[in-house]
Amino acid sequence: MYILGIESSCDDTSASVLHNNQLVSNVIASQLVHAQYGGVVPELASRAHQQNIIPVVDIALKKANISMSKLSAISFTRGPGLLGSLLVGNSFAKAAAYALKIPLIAVDHLEGHVLAHFIKNETDSYPFFPFLCLLVSGGHTQIMLVKDFFETEIIGTTIDDAAGEAFDKAAKILGFPYPGGPHIDKLAQTGNPDAFTFNQANIQGYDYSFSGLKTSFLYVLRDYLKTNPSFIEENKADICASIQKAIIESLMKKLKKAADDLQIKEIAIAGGVSANLGLQNTLKKTANEKKWNIYIPPLELTTDNAAMIGIAGYYKYLRKDFADIYTVPYTKAIY
Ligand code: KG4
Ligand code: ZN
């Protein structure tokens, strides 16, 4: 069967075609308009989705070399996300499924990130249930206990900023354009991670907090800048490596605790920040020490994409878990 996946929850308009669990095409139109504002502007995002959605679907179908009439179902991101952005994907998917008389499948964005690990891969290696998934993106930072395809419990979450926000805010202070996470990642590779230390949060359980780290980052830099106005430019790589180390240490501490407490050795990461090379290397090192089986998504499946919505749609299709045209989006996480 062929499934068309649609993702429009934030600032990426994406469409994908899957043949069963195999990815055939995955087209992502990233919206550059937000860079000049230093973050996503919701109204501009929904307008850009409206402009992009039809060409993006068209290209995804052409790349897959199929016509719309071959589709078995359409899956779309129902939420969470920005309402105006979600409405574009929701409306498109509903109209197309109605016109084609094929099932409509509503997918949760977070479940999509997790289920991206079940897209067919070369080595046919997929996480075994139950597994832990560290979902780290611009909007979310969660430790998810995944018991089955659609049976997920969030055991830890951020009480303030998401990990991606921590990267992006630090990057903004350093003068990088939005989103700054990839810039920090790149420069960190040539820097010394032990050059500077920043205060990390120390909170109970498996929850996260990044707002204190951001403040500490700001204050440490402010103090150095008092005596040396070129401090940032002269030490950029070391600063990037040091803040990246602090974020990764915070993430790994709770992930290790959850894995130890629950005695789970199947560990996945997902979301935009899972593209971070420092995080991936630390995860690999920890996996060696703790004998974890780890699952890291390929780069194009880390940040927002419709392939993950397509695979979630495939598994919902097998369960005949269909939505109707009265389905409305939701903006907040539903767990
Ligand atoms: O999953 P995603 O595309 O969107 C959300 O659902 O939020 O994640 C975007 C986030 C941004 O904060 C971006 O800076 C961060 O992922 N990101 C990275 C890297 N690539 C993307 N952060 C650190 N290192 C990276 N290589
Ligand atoms: Zn996302």
Give a nutshell description of this structure.
This protein has helices at residues 42-64, 83-100, 109-115, 163-173, 181-188, 211-227, 231-262, 277-290, 307-318, and strands spanning 2-7, 12-19, 22-30, 73-79, 104-108, 131-136, 141-148, 151-157, 266-270, 293-295. The chain has 335 residues and is an alpha/beta fold.
How would you characterize this protein structure?
With 335 residues, the protein is α/β, with parallel strands linked by helices. The chain folds into two domains: 133 residues, 2-Layer Sandwich (Nucleotidyltransferase, domain 5), CATH 3.30.420; 172 residues, 2-Layer Sandwich (Nucleotidyltransferase, domain 5). The chain contains nine helices and ten strands. The strands form two sheets. The protein has a five-stranded mixed β-sheet, sandwiched between helices. Strands 8-7-6-9-10 form a five-stranded mixed β-sheet, with helices on both faces. A hairpin with a 4-residue loop joins strand 1 and strand 2. Helix 4 packs parallel to helix 6 and helix 7 runs parallel beside helix 8. 48% of the residues are buried. The site of 5'-O-[(R)-(carboxyoxy)(hydroxy)phosphoryl]adenosine has 19 residues, from helix 4 and helix 5. The site of zinc ion has 5 residues, from helix 3.
Output the keywords.
single chain; 335 residues; alpha/beta; Nucleotidyltransferase, domain 5; 2 domains; five-stranded mixed β-sheet; 9 helices; 42% helix; binds 5'-O-[(R)-(carboxyoxy)(hydroxy)phosphoryl]adenosine; binds zinc ion
Fold topology:
Blueprint: E1 2-7, E2 12-19, E3 22-30, H1 42-64, E4 73-79, H2 83-100, E5 104-108, H3 109-115, E6 131-136, E7 141-148, E8 151-157, H4 163-173, H5 181-188, H6 211-227, H7 231-262, E9 266-270, H8 277-290, E10 293-295, H9 307-318
Parallel strand pairs: 1-4, 4-5, 6-9, 9-10
Antiparallel strand pairs: 1-2, 2-3, 6-7, 7-8
Helix pairs in contact: 1-2, 3-9, 4-6, 4-7, 5-7, 6-7, 7-8
